[in-house]
Amino acid sequence: MTHDDLTVIRAHVPEYAGVDDPIARRASDQHLRAWAGELLAGLREAVPAGAVRERLDAAILQCEFGDQRLIMAFEEHGILSRAEGLAGYLAAERAMVEAVDGLCAAHDPEALARGIDALEEAMNRRLAAATADS
Question: Domain boundaries in the chain?
């Protein structure tokens, strides 16, 4: 885990509790998803109806509910009990923050689509990092 990743995440999500134990991971997951979901919901009305908006809606929905596979990984020992596993997970959380930032700065449908691609990739990396040993 790098200090830089935590610094970037906490600059956007001050309530981010870190990843040192399952309780902190669960709280951090909730705060990160809430932060991302609020920003994405704010973008929604500016996005014209169509495929990009449908993908944005799917991302918002994903932020509303915790992924049970991720929650189980927080509770079980495995990849998140090792420093390298935590580093990969934290890097994916930072990528999620950066993807949401990119979406907020997007001004055209192509940039929005690229931003959603980056967000989906970061969320998939996050789950993969947490469940690699499951």
Answer: 3-131
